[in-house]
Specification:
Blueprint (H helix, E strand, L loop, with lengths): L1 E4 L2 E4 L21 H6 L3 H20 L20 H4 L6 H9 L6 H18 L6 H43 L1
Antiparallel strand pairs: 1-2
Length: 174
Amino acid sequence: PIGTIGSRPAAVAPPPAAAPAAPAPRAPAPSSWASLVSGPTPEQRAACLGACDGVLKYLLRHKHAAWFADPVDPVAMGIPHYAEVIKTPMDFGTIKGKYKGGRYASAEAFAADVRLVFRNATTFNTGADEPVHVAAVQLGAKFEERFESAMEDALYESSDDDDEEEEEHARRRR
């Protein structure tokens, strides 16, 4: 539609569609402000890695987990070209073994493998309406939500622990 500004016509854009309200982010505990600049402490890194256990359990219980639970067997599935398309296979069972075996150095490394599972699924199953592609997109979005929340909680709780330790140390010095 055309409106006027003063005496000259001007294009009038329709009002933007209202975006769904996002939950307000929780402010980090005071002692974690420094970690935002200097990086997480060893305790915070450990807390984040520990929180991955709950995220993994959530993924394994999800209704779409069956698609991603075990390594792809190209011969049994009749897709001999799988290895030509997917250079770095990954699945939840492999992730679980690596996690339980202590082979992840960080929560970020864990998340990278989970994201690889979904990227492989959408790369090989290119049709947006293919069941595996749909499941990967849906579960991938759920993972991102769950992972972000778990990391925020782990950082917040590990910051609370740091505060309590600092307070106890200060009381002993008095």
